[in-house]
């Protein structure tokens, strides 16, 4: 425990009732599947349109999907760090993406963040697994971060000036950058501080994306205020357009309770204004998000009052009540990436506390008066000049070595350091963010061995980069050739991938490698429009490794999607009757039955009950099938996940 008169930092645990994350999906993410759910519409300036086109990735390779969870929750102790002073108490959970889980305001007795003791894993993040609540860090590309449910490297840092910092960091593999978050709570401070630093060690620009997302309790009297009259808005079905949030489609969207459906509002704040966003409940209390100037974007997200939005909130936070999100990001909107130059380091400071607004003014009809009042209150809470003045010290503190290491993140930072040393490329100064050899697991070991010139016989994890491809090309094993073909596939060199996969199939590979090679070839053929050949390869993959449930589920899904429900049905007959993925396979079987002319059998499965733990956000497939096979019956509430 660290103590500075009235500020403590305590390492502890908290009890959360959660499902286990389960095993990673072993199938490499090679298809071009990050479809952008929006198009740019009226009133959007050309510079924003250009940055929306820049930096889009086809997939999250080399990450693997986290879809091995169920909805069977049990209590478990989760590592936590508590920062507390006379005014606020903050709980951070480093093993689950480093999230700030609670921000408790002692004066009012209110939790400023939406928090609960039974978070439910669901398919909302880039790697699927995600949970609602708290304040999360998002890096890489549009969507909830690849590190959403991963442990971060975590340490306590004592600076020479006597500051006690909770530091969390990781190597982000999509952009090949290092990020760190330093959190501290000065004595008697009414606000919590977080300094974020991003470092690009590469000799080329990288597209950069960062959003800090805070879930806030939503009541009938919650209003969200930011210093802007207009915003860029999207709602999952229409174009991104410029709107006036206070009079949007006939309602005032700054009150989350008014939104009929899910919507994003990215406030168009004038560059001359201080950038902030604040929520105010019936008493005027609520989270304020402040930042130094680099963090430009400010956003409100609402689930909306429709059946689907309410169903999602209950699915994510059973019994915990509705919530909205206020967010702060590098770009003006989440459709954009910014150009981060070679070798650059970007840093900013964020601050969070209770805005303590006057409820009459903040909830009044005069938007300009509400904005002016909130701006004054936040200037009293934390003057902008004072916040900006903290940045140089935060940048200096970022390299102070940790005093106590609490938790290891992934071993990929160690691999990256070794890779760059071998190639003679620049790397980050690890003084403040050491990547410990103890973080290495079986996912990384084969890659370190390959860098040392040893024979490569396969690996459960995946890597990306021309240098890795050259190393693998010098190897003889079918496993090396499989990984080489997979890398080409991931970067959408379909011809190179097909040629590579066929070479592996001509070799004497292990059954597991043969199965995933058939699968890779099948996906590449499907991407090129060769449906019959592609589906035949997927079936061969399942035949080579019948125990691989992920392979089976994907083959059934794609057989239906590409017009061969009879094959899907045949494959589904061999599906396991218990374990992860059974809910989705039951649904797929019902879908295949409907598509092969047996709606009665499909209806029977739906009436008996289907639950898909990894149902995608906004996925309305169960309701659509119900309407098809039970045409005169209302869709049961548990199946209503559609956002409109």
Low-confidence stretches: none
Order of the strands making up the biggest sheet: 16-20-21-25-13-12-11-10-26
Mean pLDDT: 95
Q: Determine the oligomeric state from the structure.
A: single chain
Report the strand count: 26
What does this protein structure show overall?
The protein has 644 residues and is an alpha+beta fold. Helix content is 29%, strand content 23%. It has 18 helices and 26 strands. The chain is globular. The two termini are 49 Å apart.
Summarize this, please?
The chain is of the alpha+beta class.
Fold blueprint:
Elements: E1 2-4, E2 7-18, H1 46-53, E3 74-84, E4 88-93, E5 99-105, E6 110-111, E7 122-125, E8 128-130, E9 135-139, E10 153-158, E11 164-172, E12 177-184, E13 191-199, E14 206-208, E15 210-217, E16 223-225, E17 231-234, E18 241-243, E19 263-267, E20 276-280, E21 287-291, E22 297-302, H2 307-316, E23 323-329, E24 338-340, E25 345-354, H3 359-362, H4 367-381, H5 384-389, H6 391-397, E26 404-407, H7 412-423, H8 445-451, H9 466-473, H10 478-490, H11 494-505, H12 511-527, H13 531-544, H14 549-561, H15 565-573, H16 582-595, H17 599-608, H18 621-629
Antiparallel strand pairs: 1-2, 2-3, 3-4, 4-5, 5-6, 7-8, 9-15, 10-11, 10-26, 11-12, 12-13, 13-25, 14-24, 15-23, 16-20, 17-18, 17-19, 19-22, 20-21, 21-25, 22-23
Helix pairs in contact: 9-10, 10-11, 10-12, 11-12, 12-13, 13-14, 14-15, 14-16, 15-16, 16-17, 16-18, 17-18
């Amino acid at each position: 425990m660290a103590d500075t008169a009235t500020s403590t930092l305590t390492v502890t645990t908290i009890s959360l009732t959660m499902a286990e994350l389960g095993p990673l999906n072993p199938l490499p993410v090679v298809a071009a599947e990050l479809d952008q759910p929006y198009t740019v519409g009226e009133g959007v300036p050309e510079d924003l349109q250009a940055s929306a086109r820049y930096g889009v990735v086809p997939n999250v390779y080399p990450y693997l999907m986290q879809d091995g969870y169920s909805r069977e929750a049990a209590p478990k102790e989760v590592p936590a760090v508590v920062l507390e002073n006379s005014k606020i108490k903050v709980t951070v959970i480093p093993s689950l993406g480093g999230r700030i889980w609670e921000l408790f305001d002692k004066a009012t007795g209110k939790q400023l963040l939406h928090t609960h003791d039974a978070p439910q894993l669901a398919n909302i993040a880039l790697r699927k697994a995600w949970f609602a609540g708290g304040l999360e860090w998002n890096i890489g590309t549009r969507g909830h971060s690849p590190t959403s449910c991963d442990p971060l490297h975590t340490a306590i840092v004592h600076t020479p000036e006597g500051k006690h910092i909770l530091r969390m960091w990781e190597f982000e593999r999509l952009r090949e950058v290092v990020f760190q978050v330093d959190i501290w709570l000065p004595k008697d401070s009414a606000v919590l501080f977080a300094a974020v630093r991003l470092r690009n060690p590469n000799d080329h620009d990288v597209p950069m994306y960062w959003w800090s997302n805070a879930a806030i309790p939503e009541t009938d009297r919650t209003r969200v205020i930011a210093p802007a009259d207009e915003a860029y808005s999207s709602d999952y079905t229409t174009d991104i357009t410029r709107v006036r949030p206070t009079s949007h489609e006939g309602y005032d969207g700054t009150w989350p309770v008014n939104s009929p459906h899910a919507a994003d509002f990215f406030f168009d704040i004038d560059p001359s204004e201080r950038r902030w966003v604040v929520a105010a409940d019936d008493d005027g209390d609520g989270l304020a998000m402040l930042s130094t100037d680099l963090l430009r974007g400010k956003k409100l997200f609402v689930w909306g009052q429709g059946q689907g939005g309410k169903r999602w909130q209950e699915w994510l936070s059973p019994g915990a009540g509705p919530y909205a999100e206020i967010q702060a990001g590098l770009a003006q909107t989440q459709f954009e990436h910014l150009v981060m130059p070679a070798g650059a380091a970007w840093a900013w400071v964020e601050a969070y506390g209770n805005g303590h607004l006057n409820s009459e003014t903040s909830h009044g009809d005069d938007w300009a008066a509400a904005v002016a009042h909130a701006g004054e209150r936040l200037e009293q809470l934390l003057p902008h000049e004072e916040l900006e003045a903290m940045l140089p010290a935060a940048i200096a503190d970022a390299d102070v070595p940790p005093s106590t290491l609490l938790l290891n993140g992934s071993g990929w930072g160690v691999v990256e350091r070794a890779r760059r040393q071998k190639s003679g490329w620049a790397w980050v100064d690890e003084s403040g963010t050491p990547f410990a050899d103890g973080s290495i697991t079986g996912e990384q070991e084969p890659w370190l061995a390959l860098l040392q010139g040893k024979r490569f016989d396969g690996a459960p994890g995946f890597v990306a980069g021309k240098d890795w491809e050259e190393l693998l090309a010098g190897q003889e094993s079918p496993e090396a050739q499989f990984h080489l073909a997979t890398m080409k596939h991931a970067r959408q060199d379909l011809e190179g991938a097909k040629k590579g996969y066929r070479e592996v199939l001509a070799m004497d590979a292990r059954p597991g490698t043969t199965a995933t090679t058939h699968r890779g070839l099948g996906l590449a053929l499907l991407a090129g429009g060769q449906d019959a050949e592609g589906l035949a390869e997927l079936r061969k993959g399942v035949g080579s490794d019948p125990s691989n449930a992920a392979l089976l589920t994907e083959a059934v899904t794609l057989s239906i999607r590409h017009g061969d429900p009879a094959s899907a049905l045949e494959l589904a007959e061999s599906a396991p009757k218990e374990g992860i993925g059974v809910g989705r396979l039951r649904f797929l079987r019902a879908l295949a039955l409907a598509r092969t002319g047996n709606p009665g059998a499909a209806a029977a499965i739906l009436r008996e009950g289907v639950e898909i733990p990894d149902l995608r956000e906004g996925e309305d497939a169960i309701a659509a099938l119900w309407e098809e096979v039970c045409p005169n019956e209302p869709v049961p509430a548990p199946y209503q996940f559609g956002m409109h």
